[in-house]
Structures are given as structure tokens and as C-alpha cells.
Amino acid sequence: MRRWIAIKQTNEALVTSSDTGERIAAVVGAAEAAGYLYTSEDEPLWLRGSITGQPYQGQTPLSLMKEGSVEDIMNVRRYLMGLTQGGPGPNDVDRDFTPYTDDDLKWE
């Protein structure tokens, strides 16, 4: 990251893979949304706190963004963006939702 910041300060071209570019854009978008939602004191608590609801499934938002796929990072970003646009967090029913499995589907 420091290398990228140094390149940006010298106005050199920053060349990355499309995967890295997507990850950077998603993390920046999530950080921007978190900045609207949380004070500077609350943001670290939220980032490091374990969340059981979707998309986190017991992971912290920070670990999901660091270790997850691009889609995981986008899910964190979408969740935060939804909250900034007035969407509520998970309600009591959704908080403990277990995803359906093939065994749950019955075809007649």
C-alpha cells in the first residue's frame, strides 16, 4: 500500500490486475460508507467485531475483507451502502437466518 501511495504522489501510472483494482475499489467504497455510519471511535469496534448475520457469518468485517474473495468485499460494501441509504440492519428473523440447503427444497 505504501508503494501505491508513493506512486500516486509522484503521478506515475499505477498498473494493477483487474482483481486488485476491484478489491481496492470495493475497500474504498466500504470505508467511505463506514465513515458516514460510524464515528472514528466506533468504526474500529465495528470492523473488528464478530457479526453473525449475512454476509459476515461470524467473521469480522475486517477479516472478511482481508481474507475473502472480491465478492465477500463487495458484500460488505453493499451492506454498508444499504445502511447509508436508510436500509435497516438485519431484523430478529434475518439475524439468525440459516441459508437453505438442497434438503430443504421439496419438489412435488
Secondary-structure map with pairings?
Elements (H helix, E strand, L loop, with lengths): L1 H8 L8 H20 L4 H7 L12 H7 L2 H15 L7 H4 L13
Description:
The protein has a domain at 17-89. The termini are far apart. Helix content is 56%, strand content 0%. Helix 2 (18-37) packs parallel to helix 5 (70-84) and helix 4 (61-67) packs antiparallel against helix 5 (70-84). It has helices at residues 2-9, 18-37, 42-48, 61-67, 70-84, 92-95.
What are its keywords?
about 110 residues; mainly alpha; globular
Q: Work out the helicity level.
A: 55-70%
Mean pLDDT: 78
Largest sheet: none
Order of helices and strands: HHHHHH
Shape: globular
| Class by alpha and beta content | mainly alpha
Extract low-pLDDT stretches: none
Distance between the termini: 55 Å
Number of helical segments with 4 or more residues = 6
Number of β-strand runs: 0
Specify the oligomeric state. single chain
Rg (CA only):
17 Å
Strand content: under 5%
Describe this structure in a few short sentences.
The chain has 108 residues and is mainly alpha-helical. It has helices spanning 2-9, 18-37, 42-48, 61-67, 70-84, 92-95. The model has no long low-confidence stretch (mean pLDDT 78).
